[in-house]
Protein 1
Amino acid sequence: MNQVLSSLGFGIVTASILLPAAIGFTLQFSATNVLNIGFGSQMTLAAFIGYVCTSHGIGLWYALVLAGVFGGVTSLLLNRFLLTPFMRRGTTFFGMIVITIALSLVLEYTIEAIWGPVSVFYPLSTGGIVHVGAMSFTAEQLVIIGIGVALALATHAMLRYTRTGKAMRAVAGNAPLARASGVPAQRIVDLAWLLSGFMGGAAGVMLGISLASVSFTMGDTMLIEIIAAAVLGGVGQVYGAMLGSVVIGVLLEESAVVLSGAYAPISAFVVLVIVLLIRPTGLFAGTAKAKGVAA
Amino acid sequence: MSYYLTVMAMYILIGIIAAWGLNLQFGETGVLNFAYVMFIAAGAYTTAVFTLGHPSANGTQQYFWGTHLPFPIPWIASMAVGAVLGVLVGLVSLRRLRGDYQAMVMLVVSLIATYLVSANTGFLNGQTGLALIPAPFGSVHLSELNYRWFFVAVTAVVALLVFDVMRRITGSPLGRTMRAVRENEAAAVALGTNVVKIRLLTMAVGGAIAALAGAIEVQFIGAWSPAGWTYPETFGLFAAVLVGGRGNLGGVALGAFLVQGLFLEGTVLLPSLGNPDLVGAVQWITMGVMIMLFMWFRPRGVLPERRRRFATEARSRVPLLLVRAQRDARG
């Protein structure tokens, strides 16, 4: 029982990392309808940028912000100069996923070519463990939880209470109608990519801090978890992604206790398969049905 | 050098067989099987456990089960496993999802399969992989080099058989239905096609072909490990199909020759520069860029799919009727 409780602590940390990642992945998909398989590699790249920052003496948390900004800007540029031109050319969604996976290959192996196949490490402070009941957290983990929750709340506030958020929901719901109603759809799509990249970049550094190391294939495992969280919540549903992240995050760490640690990602996969077999639209079915991704 | 030539010839032939299987799924039916390399691996592992013998006979290697059976049986078993796995993966991912969404799920399947096999040492010897897998045709007595050429020749015959099967499928009404599913799913459904069934069928046939390629490969190289079937390998084959021309068997073979043979294996001959992983990394980067360039400039490949004409009979009859009509009018 104690072990289950203490791993709940790890689960909360993992969920807090998954939160921005899954929100970013989903937000971008709902606004553009393009599944970005390169998301995991973009996260890894941002995590390495975070490493470069820390190795130049920049503090860990500033590095996180810088990596997030880097992720946002790259994401925006990739959309503007790679993905949008392909879309304009009439490449189907079917073709777009081939493009994003090719992009993923390019990014992942560019990282390997630059930093090599070995892991790099973030400088972490030692000591300072906070006990909350049976759970214990390092100071860094507490900050990670704070950032994850803050990013989720900020997304919620933006979508609910700002004009931009309203416009983004409009574009996600029906892009041609939104455009006809005077919503600057292109700018909203750009913003979605920017936010998605920022969230992914921040999540990449958070993951690096949590694992204490960063390697070029880090994004691959993370991508499984992000997709599981996004699909569980209903792809394109930001609130679904939030719920999915919490469920998958806690499940991953609890299953690491019950099974052995190496099998943890498999539990995320099992959830994915079950959801696809029983309810492929996910818990919140709206977007998936509207966009025809799942019936 | 002659030894290296057999390796090169073998990789090209295996690449061609595997690319044809992928072409049936991606080129003809339009299923984006991003887990394709997993089927190659399934075939390789099946043949390995069907030839290695009982696990206790190989003290240092751990695997869940094993036996030793003579030549065609392991390959046939591999194809059966590939087909069954294809249907299983298809049942999870293909039934109710949009095409790109299916592809994403398959990618996850591929990632998790590599993960599962690496993490579980007792299953298929984990990260280390299986080695000392015996070569087929034990009764053939040839010198080492001649034996290798003999193996290449057998593979060439297998490739011809696969070509024949592919040509028959793509030329048949079934092939036409597959292309209908690819081009316009809604129209295919409206005409009464069971789209899911067609997709599952391509998953099974393509999976069997992939497994066959894996079976041949594993007996040629004698070893197999998770490092050999990570997800980028699938995109080496996608690149082959895209470069050659999806839907054109000759084009796909050309693509496999260029990408799998010259590009992936030929670069082994290059002197290594600095970081030992650099050549491999640059290869995959180039592969990604190549896929994007072809999608932009030549989405139909070097040798595009030929437009099929089925109307020969009808066309030959129309002029005849006209001639008759004119004659009757005159008369």
Protein 2
Amino acid sequence: MTAAKVSKPKASLPSARPPYLGFGLGLRPQHYTDIIEGSPDVDWFEVISENYMVPGGQPLRMLDKIRARYPIVMHGVSLSIASTAPFNAQYLSDLKALAERIEPRFVSDHLCWTGVHGVNLHDLLPIPYTREALDHVVARIDHVQEYLQRPIAIENVSTYIQFAHSEMPEWEFISELTRRTGCWLVFDVNNGFVSAFNHGWDAQAFIEGIPADRVVQFHLAGHEHNMSHIIDTHDALVPDEVWDLYRAAVERFGPVSTIIERDDDIPPLADLVAELATARSIAEDMLPELRKRRAS
Amino acid sequence: MTRPSPSRTSPPTLREIEAQLQAAILTGDDTVLAALADGAHASRDTLLGVYRQAYTARLIEVLMSDYPLLRSYVGDVVFRELAHSFIAAHPSRSQNVRWFGTPFPEFLKEQGSAAKHPALAEIAAIERSVSDAFDCIDAPVLGFDDLAAYPPEEWARLTFSLHPSVTFMPAATNAFHIWKALNEQETPPRGVCLPIPEHVVVWRYGATPKVRLMMEEEAMIGREARRGASFGTLCEMLAIYADPDSAPARAAGYLQAWLTNEMLTSAKVVARNRRAHLARRAAPSSSSA
């Protein structure tokens, strides 16, 4: 990599760090009524962008109601930022239209690809951490940020395979991405734990390896442990070992907007709010200023 | 980290890796294994298998979620077989998984075992239309007051825009009755072909998709209304179809039902005839010349 290839974040894009939002949940349709009719102890909601990239109807009506009362973050699963296929222009246009409609605090997606050759596998697929891949993803993030006219945040995914020709660890790849594009980072604590176990990394090294000032959100979730490997299911309670890693993340990154992200086996809203209270309690015990900030 | 013995000097490019991994997932091709390292506790074959299994499992789940009543009708085992065949024949071309299952009803019409039971494709088509009506584009709703603003002499020339959620579906089988029973958690009848086709309409009322049967003549004029036929033309069609004396009353009845059901978005009066309409449009440009 030569200095000449390093592109700087575009001066025209906003550079202010997205605001600290507190403790939130992934918005799921099962909870619409409880959220609209009640006042759950949730500071903000993260929406799956694609669920609202639809022509109209109930999903957008519900989102309009909820965004009137809560800050919203858009989190996509189909940007396919690392794909070598051309961008889907309609997808980008729909993403931008949704962002203009709901004015999210920030927009995020994953460091992955979802398909090539016109096919979409609807999975968050891994890449080799090579300089070639880095240049490619940097160019794609630049393009998306320019198109959306805002910096995006990129999340680490759970990976099961790793490529023998990778030239750097994932955290170094991610650090270079944010340095060269100005993108922000979502650190999914569970994904970090899953990948570290599957590949024999030290999860703490991941936390130490990414720049603290670029992490704007934590995801917390559960997984399925198969002894020889862990599968990221996001369908269970946050396990103890992920809570431990969360403590390490809070210590390293400080106050960071946090959500419980449940994608399957969705429990009643009250159960998730209770689990969120655990996250809040851990962070507030470690960072007493958060408790004071909430009290004020 | 166990490194596979390299079969070439330069490492694969990102483009090559993505093509190989996609082929591994879609077709079982093992080429990508040469580029993988073993995991800390499991072999690369096992770990690659996680992606292969997840691909099919995820898309079956999407189809189950999109077609819950068909699944309940045929049972899990048969549904999974149909889903497997569909997934193999129709890799997703949509960026948003919301539309992955759109071709499923058409697939069932052609697919060997399902094609022998044509009610299955029609049940799936109703479920698909219900999903599409749910998040269909929003549009205004035409009210009785809006129509009352038109003087009686203009009614024959009124044309209507149907709500974009309205879908007319001819049914050669008793799919509607099966769908309705399943939807109401009652025992569905056996699928049979009907001597005379039925006409199903799906639309959105408020935020809720609705499904009902239409008389053949109502479906006929509904389709023609969508194509831009005027109210006068619709009355003439009804007069030809059945008792001419009651045609205006039947047309008014259907129109009232469409209004009550929020199936119309707007009305407008068309010009008396196209030639006159064109002449009026042409006039300003000639005068300005």
